[in-house]
Amino acid sequence: MKMSSQKRALSSSVVAAGCILLSANSQAQLEAAPTDFRGSASALLEEVVVTARKRDEGAQEVPLSISAFNSEQIAALKIRDLNDLTVNMPNVSLEDIGTARGTANFSIRGVGVNSSIPSIDPTVGVFVNGVYLGTNSGTLFDTFDLESLEVLRGPQGTLFGRNVTGGAVLVNTKGPSDSFELNVRTAVETGDIGGLNTYTMAAVGGPVTSDVGARAVIYYNDDEGQLENQFTGNDVLGIEQTMARGTVTWTPSASSDLKLFYEYQETDGDGPAAQSHTNGVGQPGIPINHDRRGFNLSIDAEGYQKTETNFFVAEFNQQIAFGDGVITAIVGKRDFESVGFGDIDAQPSWLLHTDSWLETDQTSMELRYSGTFFGSTRLTAGIYSFENEIKYHERRGGLGVLTGNVAPFLRQEGGGLHNTESLTFFSQVDHDLDDSWTLTAGINYSREEKDVKVASLGFNQSVFPNLTECNIVEGPACPFDFVDDESWSNWAPKLGVTYNIDDQQRIYGHWTIGYRSGGYNLRNTSTDPNDTPGPFDEEEVSNFEVGYKSTHDWGRVNVALFHTQIDDQQREVNLPSPTAGVVQLIRNTADTTISGLEVDTAVSLSNNLLLLASVGYIDAGYDRVRFDLNGDGVVDNADKNLDLPRAPEMTWSIGLTHDLQLGDWGYLTSRATWSYRDYFAYTDNNLGFVEEVDIVDAGLDFHSANGNWVFSIYGKNLLDEVSFGNDTQLPALLGPLPLGGTFAPVMPGVRYGVEITYNMP
To answer: Is residue 710 within 8 Å of residue 701, measured between CB atoms?
Structure first.
């Protein structure tokens, strides 16, 4: 059960007070500590080198809203995967959707996607080693052996192209260093419910010859399950993950280098673990309706999901005399496959179960130049091409209880083939007028073509005992009832100005426009001939932002104000259906305005005690509505007055990190973080919602004096707060049988862990 408010407040106070008391008790030692001592608190205060403008520079120098972490900071904060970043950044949600494991459900500044449909382009782009990931499937992964993580808030369309209207996440893996390195880490977690979760990972690398380096990484995760299925008594939400990564670098001369990167990943885990609770249409789940404030769930099909990823990147850099610049060429290829099965009715009976198959094959190439002219003008320009082929199939099996659970009574088959080809030209100039003022101007031209063949689930139905099968991915293919192609092109400008108050402080402002691709819906479940799979039009985002960034001996303070207008906003509208369970329509539903504030700080309270804090505020609303969002049959002010989904009004976090020297033994790091996210609507009709949540994490890390060993104990979500990956209402009736309730994948509760790390040298 969820803690009472009194217990929650007490627990939060105890955690925070513990860290403060530890600081106070060791104050004398802190004051006596050498000023050159470098622990976790010092590491977290360091400025991170970022590539937000496609060149290396300090994060505080870049006139953008950025949260960045290097490898040491990732380790210090125990950031296990991208989801863990959510608690450290204002107005950012980097979560798993819960329907399909590893499928990103990212939202930044209230701009996000609520869908696992693979043909929907993301609003938050994920880039790994400079390569854009074209779908949101398989984008949540462990952070072991990363060089840096960067989260850019707001549209980034000038340099990064389309589908970054909310922001971008830049992931950079480690390459071989100039000396031999060996890193090994193992961890074990458990909680109040569920089984053990174990991690084993290792990286080794260094020089092979004078001009060749190599690094190899292996990773294995065996999670027995972090929730309990009340119907079977089994632990669910388990997963087995394996990853192998290799990097080779070649430096034939002082002016050129080549980097080759390959990664293989596979996962084999349970399907979604969803709870049904009274929500949505107001109907209780039949026969089980759980309290949404607890972790209880009861499903008869625990399901599975298996994925396989092959990812290759080649990057070549050549320094040239022209503008003392660098020409960079990046080629990326990523193949992703998944097959899954899940219980969508969230009940201990066969009412609606779903199988899915997905294959994506993407190839991208980027050629760019970056240089400086006259000592005051920095130019970045390039060309980018992207191709992505998607094969998707979904099989919905309904009303199996009518056949004695031997087969579905109603079967629906559908999906489609979806191909994308795009070409982008981009350029940005930063010109220093003098030592204080810098002007920025950029432009991005994109042209994109998509063609699609769709087999609508509503038109491929069969009834027991005459059930028929088709499979677009594995064959034989289903008949396609919709075939179409469309193209879009646009110009995305950026204008900005930066004023350097002094060497430590700067003020910036910029205006930019970004676009999210138009497209098609591969999961067409409607039987209404007017509900075609598309095309829906592209989404235009105009953003104005002003900010202040400062760096001092005692820390840093960053502030940003933003005003975002979205025209032709794309939304996946979820509507309960008595045949399909849920109909998912993708439409340009509205024009919206989102304004907000972000503040993040790092303050050194002493040489060994660091305070990290952030706050985000969002004011979001509709300006014009073109779709019947609440389902009452008319488009009027009742639709306009609804809350914008995925836009919590407040987010904030506060954390303390403290290093205590232990003489010749080494030092002890204690840390505690308390983060908060406000209530927000999940579905467009606001019948689905996610309640406010407080997350408290804490831990102790012992670092040996030689720096080789780190022994850690930690706790995550110590208040045992309940949250959900989504909250989708189900129909009151599925065929002739009552259903009601919701499909709400449950997120894990409290987890405790121990971790051992060995580093050499």
So the answer is: yes
